[in-house]
Amino acid sequence: MLHIVNKSPGERATLASCLAHVRPGHSVLLIEDAVYAATKGHAAAGTVEAALATAKVYVLMPDLEARARAGAVIDGVVPVDYRGFVDLVTQNPRVQSWL
Questions:
Q1: For 33, which of 23, 73, 80, 97 is 20 to 30 Å away at the CA?
Q2: Which pairs count as long-range contacts for 62-66, CB under 8 Å and 24+ apart, including other chains?
Q3: Among 64, 58, 57, 65, which Cα is nearest to 85's?
Q4: What's the mean pLDDT when you consider all of the chain?
């Protein structure tokens, strides 16, 4: 299953809600303002690092670049481009967008 999160963890509890439902083998894709959580020094970085023990975590690189955070990705988080985003959607039989 692919979980897609787009809200900033400082603005809403969407990321925490998502991660509470993540199971081994699932993938999480952070897009839009959720990409901040995948960067070193962010308040939610520890939460994302802990999630790496259970799931694969991806971050949309164009959204990181738009926020000038491309050089600060947490180790273990995989940056993807739009093609990678499409690949994740097609590789997972179920997709859940967290609003």
A1: 23
A2: 63/31, 63/32, 63/35, 64/35, 64/38, 64/39
A3: 58
A4: 96
Structure tokens at 76: 């273990």
The CATH number, out of the four listed (3.20.20.140, 3.40.50.360, 3.40.1260.10, 3.40.1110.10), of the domain defined by the range 2-98: 3.40.1260.10
User: Amino acid letter at 37?
Assistant: A
pTM higher than the cut 0.70: yes
- Tokens matching residue 66: 């738009």
Residues in the chain: 99
